[in-house]
Amino acid sequence: MTLKQLRYAVTVAETGNITEAAKKLFIAQPSLTAAIAELEKEYNIKMFSRNKRGIEVTSDGEEFLGYARQVLEQANLIDGRYLSTADQKLRFYVSSQHYSFAVEAFVKLLRQSGKDKYEFHMRETQTYDIIEDVAKLRSDIGVIYLNKFNETVILKTLKDNDLRFEPLFKAKPHVFVGTNSPLAGKKRLTLEDLKPYPRLSYEQGSHNSFYFSEEILSTVDCDKELVVCDRATLFNFLIGMNGYTICSGVISNELNGSNIIAIPLDVDDYMEIGYIVRNFTPLSQLTEDYIGLLKECCVGR
Questions:
Q1: Domains in the chain, please, with CATH?
Q2: Residue ranges of the chain with pLDDT lower than 70?
Q3: Which of 118, 193, 202, 242 has CA 20 to 30 A from 93's CA?
């Protein structure tokens, strides 16, 4: 085993494609394939399987690559300490539902890393893609929520992908509205209050099941629906269309401004927000640091 082989294997897992990985590594595809084969032979495992969509990581591969990332991170730290010419670029990948506290923690992690070279990915995306990103090693950690409606389906999907859910905090449902909305003056809201206004939700792509919805109470009938793909557009519609979205109520004014407010919603429900990671795979130091910062950003919520 060499560090170069480990970097090759991690890059293949991240790209999901041998050709793309070879281009990224600036080596010939046959050389990359041979290096991976030698690594698999040395440890008597099969790390990757091929299908029509490209390369998939096997269960043995997921465990091995978890250790490989640890070794590479430690090697970078050693290089950074003793070799002034070393490539000290930090790499960290997060997939999350659209939570400002997750971005806030991400920003704090980046600031405290103190590195001049880094490649950090913060991917706010669809629920199923978050699960798939973590399962296939495209992300180190994911941030999602559970409630009494989606819990059975989500936990089964996590189990099928050899992932686990770790809770951060439980929140009562709130409604995000713009500060100029007719609803903004109310101390509490009911579902009846919301009926005249457009409901905003995030697009879930091919897995557009109610169980994978980012918003609770998605099965409640609504005459006016606006479906978006990103947080900025959702906030613009909240303000421009007097729309609303049902959420945890946690928002960072520092990152998102003061034009959006959260109002408690009178319903018997909850959102248990937490993170997902791979089972039996050691967490990198950056992942552990990010989890710590997530908890800090959730204090009192």
A1: 1-88 (1.10.10.10), 170-273 (3.40.190.10)
A2: 77, 80-88, 252-257, 299-301
A3: 202
Q: How does strand 54-57 pair with strand 48-51? A: antiparallel
Give the residue from 137, 122, 103 showing the smallest Cα distance to 293: 103
* pTM check: above 0.85: no
Nearest C-alpha neighbor of 202 from the set 243, 161, 242 = 243
Please give the full DSSP string across 234-272, using - where no structure is assigned: HHHHHHHS--BEEE-----HHHH-SSEEEEEB-SS--EE
Specify whether the CB–CB gap between 125 and 143 falls below 8 A.
no
The DSSP line for 3-71 is HHHHHHHHHHHHHS-HHHHHHHHTS-HHHHHHHHHHHHHHHT---EEEETTEEEE-HHHHHHHHHHHHH
Structure confidence at residue 254 (pLDDT): 67
